[in-house]
Amino acid sequence: MDDIHRYSNYFLPEIEFKILANFPLPRGEMVERWEEFQTRLREKKYSFGVWRGEESTPLNFQNLRFFNSHGEEIDYPNLVLNFLYLINRVSREQIGVCIDKTIPRVLDNQLPYLIIQRKNWKDLDQNFFIAVDGEILFPAVTSKFDPIFPILKLAELGGRFNWELKRWI
Asked: Fewest beta carbons within 10 Å, which of 37, 137, 150, 165?
């Protein structure tokens, strides 16, 4: 089994997890700065948190546990790779950069159209993953998960989807 296929056990046929937040993020809306995003939430009296029972509690990824619809706990690799699976199903665009030229441009791995850009790009923190030396790294995901980058990246993708949609209407 080669290095690339050792990750295949992380991919599920369908995305089966969800995180419920108590504020709406309008589709296609993009906020450039994290501080501005937090200010707008406060102005609308939204709290950045998750629902537990009848109350909203602060969003603390260190204390969150993720489960699929079968009640099985999902670890960070499973969560991240399934998230990438979801992004690729809807975006079909580059979400990472590949430095290792021996890694093929398109990785199948039960992940449709996982497109990676094969070039040396210095702005690596703007990608969901980095493929280098036969390893796939996720700089935005650690045991002390920081939600800032993924939320801003999702807002950016939402803006792109909205722009694409307007082109076809």
From this structure: 165
Please report which helix (H) or strand (E) contains residue 50, including its range: strand 49-52
What does the alpha-carbon distance between residue 23 and residue 163 come to, in Å, rounded to a whole number? 23
Question: How far out from the chain centre does Cα 60 lie?
Answer: 17
Give 87-122 as a DSSP string: HHHHH-S--EEE--TTS-SEE-TT-TTEE-EES--S
**Secondary structure of residue 124 in the 3-state scheme:** helix
- What pLDDT, in 10s, does the model give residues 67-97? 766 677 777 667 766 666 665 555 544 555 5
Q: How far is CA 27 from CA 20, 47, 111, 156, 167, in A?
A: 16, 19, 25, 10, 16
